[in-house]
Write a structure and sequence with these properties.
The complex is a heterodimer of chains A (482) and B (219). Chain A has 482 residues and is mainly alpha-helical. Chain A is built from 19 helices and 2 strands. The two termini of chain A are 30 Å apart. The termini of chain B are far apart. Chain B has one domain. The chains are: A mainly alpha (482), B mainly alpha (219).
């Protein structure tokens, strides 16, 4: 029931918003729809927490500890983003960046995107997972080009082509996966069901599975934004509207990684070696290093934070690749806190760029003079994302680092260099923006502080004290991924 | 059985041939026609596989391919190309011999890569799998070497053809729900690139994506 609400609410909201269009109450419907989704997500989580993993809809849906926590996270962040985007998009509309049709389109596609992500998470069918992932890409492509500037169109085209090509590789991987599964499970839909596959993963043909994983890695890795497949990511994040950047960075990357990790457990079960894990560790480490050094030379504020997203997805991929219980636990926690912290940063960045009418970091100064809450929001958000204690990102990065020292000590220096460079680069850039004198063109705006505060408080709370239910949950998920 | 396998092999060769043709075809209209031909060969071969293996659901996929890739998408492309007045446009293709050679190398590479799968497979269609992968890779190569938005999209759709072919030849097709979903995604993608062509055309005055060079690192 709650599963049905979880999927139908965003879909209905998308249809409704398509009709409502640019009317005054459209943002409120958007918020209402996502709030309903979030509630359904919570109820589902409680049910799974007490009742254990469950199958639904004739084995079509499958919920366990791993995906249900991502469901709650996805629906929560999309709700706060909807709240944030109410004022933000209204201002963009007044400013003339988007027209009547743009607004209609924005709201409908936002909800469709949430639907696609939730379908990705909940489906039990590896093929449907691919379809939903493609749908998530397609629904955001035109959101990235919403402003219709040449730059935005270029970014969206790049996003469309690169992710389209990437995801095509993942489909080939899925075909190979089906080929291997069919031998064991027989023909038909049953052979693509995740629950069946994980049961028989030991008897899947290892060579085919390894080949499949290479394709899946390239495919879903493109969507995760792993170096060297990351080219679309900074462009799409910097040129799209800020609420879209927030959900792309905070949610979509997580979902793609989720798909990858699911496939990895199958391949590991089949080959019995650390083949898939090693590939993921390699990609992850490369992403951390390249992104950290790219952070240093950024001029555009949203672009800089999108590189930070690449870095953090690299850390998480690395952790899942390492695959020890400690590392996986750290990876799961990192997904959660990065998503919360990064979306809150994008919210404040949206405010900041509206205050200064630019995304150029050299022209953004003295935010704290114009709007103390926005200034502190950005500063604290950045403190959280670079891994300062007592925020949650520190906890997760510390766990991952500990696991690395324990099981792959020779990789620790690389990891530390990446983290250190990212730390320095972000702090160096953000400090003069937040403090310093306010330029004359700075405007003060009425903004929604609630989403930012909520996210920061949550990241802080998780860093100080990880609630029992959450750690129990992660432990269960770690068990699943062994 | 023998005859059916030969028919499938023949059709696979035709699919590969059209893929190579698209790789170097300079005229827009001819390119779209080639794409339609490829879809047609694909559709026939799917139907033949379905008939031979007694897989009913492959008839549905065959019809799906026929309506989508042979009729609807080429039609949409034709309309777009005419509306945007680029149907007479001739794209400069650089270094045809080299591109062809890379294409040949890709085919050999596909044979090498899919060798373990072919050994394991008992299906009559197993010899077709490397050609399917080669079609995917040639589509990719086309997207890399060509600079026109329409050509890139055709390359993308040719990749999709190759994937579909791979599914048919490796496993007698994916489960129906997956195939329908993939077709739906392709359809949505078609509408999106349609919209895109207009956007690109109005803001760049041409569909040559080489002009898109505003977003760069370290400027």
């Amino acid at each position: 029931m709650e599963l049905l609400v979880l999927l139908v609410a965003p879909l209905l909201a998308a249809v409704a918003l398509g009709f409502v269009g640019d009317r005054k109450f459209a943002p409120e419907i958007n918020i209402l729809g996502s709030a309903l989704t979030f509630l359904a997500g919570l109820v589902l989580a409680l049910k799974v927490y007490y009742g254990g993993p469950m199958l639904a809809g004739g084995k079509f849906f499958f919920v366990d500890a791993f995906n249900v926590y991502l469901c709650v996270l996805t629906s929560f962040v999309s709700m706060t983003t909807a709240i944030f985007s109410r004022r933000y998009m209204r201002r963009e509309r007044e400013h003339g960046s988007v027209g009547h049709w743009g607004m209609r389109f924005y709201h409908a596609m936002f909800q469709l995107f949430i639907f696609a992500m939730l379908l990705c998470l909940l489906t039990n069918n590896v093929g449907v997972l691919w379809i939903a992932m493609e749908l998530a890409t397609l629904s955001t492509v035109l959101l990235v080009s919403l402003y219709r500037t040449p730059r935005a169109i270029e970014a969206a085209w790049k996003y469309f082509i690169l992710c389209g090509v990437g995801i095509a590789q993942a489909l080939f991987g899925t075909v190979l996966l089906y080929f291997a599964a069919e031998k064991v499970l027989g023909e038909g839909g049953e052979a693509l069901l995740w629950t069946n596959l994980s049961r028989v993963s030991g008897s899947l043909e290892p060579t085919v599975m390894s080949l499949a994983f290479v394709f899946l890695m390239v495919g879903y890795g493109t969507k995760v934004g792993l170096v060297p497949l990351h080219n679309w990511l900074p462009d799409a994040h910097s040129e799209g509207p800020t609420p879209v950047s927030a959900v792309l960075s905070g949610l979509l990357l997580n979902i793609a990684l989720y798909a990858l990790v699911r496939c990895k457990t199958l391949v590991d079960g089949s080959t019995g070696t650390h083949f898939a894990g090693n590939i993921m560790m390699g990609f992850g480490l490369l992403s951390i290093l390249v992104a950290a050094f790219s952070l240093l030379r950024q001029k555009d504020i949203k672009r800089m934070f999108s590189y930070s997203s690449i870095e953090h997805m690299g850390i998480t991929t690395f952790a899942f690749g390492l695959g020890t219980p400690l590392a996986t636990f750290g990876g799961l926690l990192h997904m959660l806190v990065h998503s919360l912290a990064k979306s809150s940063i994008f919210f404040t960045v949206g405010h900041v760029s509206q205050m200064h009418q630019t995304q150029d970091m050299d022209r953004i100064r003295g935010i704290i003079k114009g709007s103390p809450l926005v200034g502190w929001g950005l500063m604290i958000g950045v403190m959280a994302i670079i891994g300062m204690p007592p925020f949650g990102v520190f906890t997760s990065e510390f766990l991952i680092l500990t696991a690395t020292i324990k099981d792959a000590p020779f990789l620790t220096p690389f990891l530390l260099v990446g983290l250190g460079v990212a730390f320095a680069a972000l702090l160096r850039r953000v400090q003069p923006m937040v403090f310093g004198d306010a330029p004359s063109y700075q405007k003060t705006l009425k903004v929604a502080h609630m989403p930012v505060l909520l996210h920061i408080v949550l990241v802080l709370a998780i860093g100080v004290y990880l609630p029992d239910f959450l750690s129990l949950w992660f432990h269960k998920a770690v068990e699943l991924m062994k | 059985m023998q005859i059916a396998a030969q028919i499938i092999g023949f059709l696979a060769a035709l699919v590969l041939l059209t893929a190579f043709g698209m790789l170097v075809q300079r005229r827009m209209t001819a390119l779209i026609h080639l794409f339609a031909w490829q879809g047609l060969f694909l559709s026939i071969s799917t139907a033949v596989v379905g008939f031979m293996a007694g897989q009913r659901h492959l008839y549905i996929s065959s019809l799906l391919t026929l309506s989508l890739k042979v009729i609807l998408l080429p039609y949409i492309l034709h309309v777009l190309v005419r509306r945007l007045r680029i149907h007479r446009e001739i794209e400069t293709v650089v270094n045809v011999p080299l591109t062809m050679l890379i294409g040949v190398a890709l085919v050999i590479f596909s044979y090498h890569l899919t060798a373990p799968v072919r050994e394991l497979s008992t299906l009559v269609t197993r010899s077709v799998l490397p050609i399917a992968l080669a079609t995917v890779l040639i589509g990719l190569l086309m997207m890399i070497t060509r600079r026109h938005a329409v050509t890139q999209i055709i390359g993308f759709l040719a990749m999709e053809n190759g994937l579909f072919f791979a599914a048919t030849s490796a496993t007698y097709g994916m489960p129906l729900v997956v195939e329908l979903g993939v077709a739906l995604d392709v359809l949505i993608a078609a509408f999106i690139f349609g919209i895109f062509f207009f956007h690109i055309h109005t803001s760049f005055d041409s569909l040559n994506v080489e002009q898109m060079a505003r977003l760069k690192e370290g400027d």
